[in-house]
Amino acid sequence: MKCPRCENELEATNVEELGITINAHMCPTCRGTWVGSETLKDIESTVDQRFVEFRRIPSKSVQMKELHCPQCPGPVKMDKVESQRDKKVVLDVCPQCRNIWLDAGEKEAIQQDSFLNLLVDTFRFSR
């Protein structure tokens, strides 16, 4: 499979972090990751609590660039979907196979949460 962002060959990989194993295909050049929809659920359900959250995600204009599914035959345009965990992350979801492209930094942005956010959420729900 070719990377939908930079056209280089994707490499199959297993990433073990935060207590989960992620089966994915990763681009060695742009560091984007191709995952299944069930894998995304695992990623979203895992929280990496940080004192301060640092996001290193592509700009909105880069995230909104049209991408095609690297797995489905023919040029299948992927849908842009806002992440439920982090509104600044725009996921690329194939409408046919339902697999997801995560640009470099998006997986980490989805998983990380700061203690400040935790305190704000706790205060908001305790009222």
How would you explain this protein's 3D organization?
- The chain contains 4 helices and 8 strands, in the order E-E-E-H-E-H-E-E-E-H-E-H.
Number of strands: 8
Q: Please bin the fraction of helical residues.
A: 10-25%
Calculate Rg over CA atoms: 15 Å
Label the structural class. alpha+beta
Which residue ranges are poorly predicted, with pLDDT under 50 across at least 5 consecutive positions? none
- Which of globular, elongated, flat, extended, rod-shaped describes the shape? globular
- End-to-end Cα distance, whole Å, is 50 Å
Could you write a compact summary of the structure shown?
This protein is of the alpha+beta class. It is built from four helices and eight strands; from the N terminus they run E-E-E-H-E-H-E-E-E-H-E-H. It has a six-stranded antiparallel beta sheet with strand order 1-2-3-7-6-5, covered by helices on one side. The chain has a two-stranded parallel sheet with strand order 4-8.
Write the layout of secondary structure elements.
Blueprint: E1 11-17, E2 20-26, E3 33-35, H1 37-44, E4 48-50, H2 60-63, E5 79-82, E6 90-93, E7 100-102, H3 106-111, E8 112-114, H4 115-126
Parallel strand pairs: 4-8
Antiparallel strand pairs: 1-2, 2-3, 3-7, 5-6, 6-7
